[in-house]
Hints:
- The chain is α/β, with parallel strands linked by helices.
- The protein is built from nine helices and nine strands.
- The radius of gyration is 19 Å and the shape is globular.
- The mean pLDDT is about 90.
Amino acid sequence: MVRNILDVLDLSVEEIDELIALACDIINDPKAYSERCRGKKLATLFFEPSTRTRLSFEAAMYELGGNVLGFSEAQSSSAAKGESVADTARTVSCYADIIAMRHPKEGAPRVAAAHSSVPVINAGDGGHNHPTQTLTDLLTIYREKGRLNDLTVGFCGDLKFGRTVHSLINALSRYTGIRIILISPTELKLPSYVKNDVLKKNGIPYVQTTELESVMPELDILYMTRVQRERFFNEEDYLRLKDSYILDPKKLVNAKKDLCIMHPLPRVNEISTAIDSDPRACYFKQVLNGKYIRMALMLRLLEEADR
């Protein structure tokens, strides 16, 4: 049976917990998994630039003993000739056992999944969804905190266009004791549909503020994001907002000693490099966790497809 992961909500809480447990087992005993995907091929269809997501998918498949094919920009594919996403998916599923796809247009991976004969994983579509980054974030929180409930989580920066923020809020809303603090310029506030359909609907307490330092002492998790130039139509607006929040050691004076600082990367200048040596900095741990959770996800999807 072919199963696709297009949204983190395609997975139940129990399935997410199982994936986290599997990822932790891979971390503890990588040799036991080094041949599990021998003979399998992953196709990475990246119509939009990426470093961490694409390379972590590729590293994940190689470490499972499989192989990788694909492209890293639309101009390297027949999309440059006008081929549709549907036809690309039909074609590539003749060559590969599983597809990871990133696309600038929201909903494109769903179109691909509807026409593919192999599992499709959404590796990011526009400002919409990024489920494997969310799984990466959940694994990071679990490894750092030992739990996914009873946490106060602050999201800071671009909450309007940040697909990683939207996906993680969706995922956390299904756990108990979660409190959300939204820190952003007025122009980059969390969209009302996320507040209404996720936070309010699920009874998740939340606070909106423009001040980072005032809420810092409350946070168990601080999730920083960059202001994304590629999501702006107006360069002037981007330049005005890009340095709204810069995390430096002074801003951490009143933070908890076990605060977990996260960032989906790439970082521009919203986290000072002086923070990198702070034991609370977890963003490069996130990078490594991304490889392990993608190993777990691909393993599960391929096992289901072979049944």
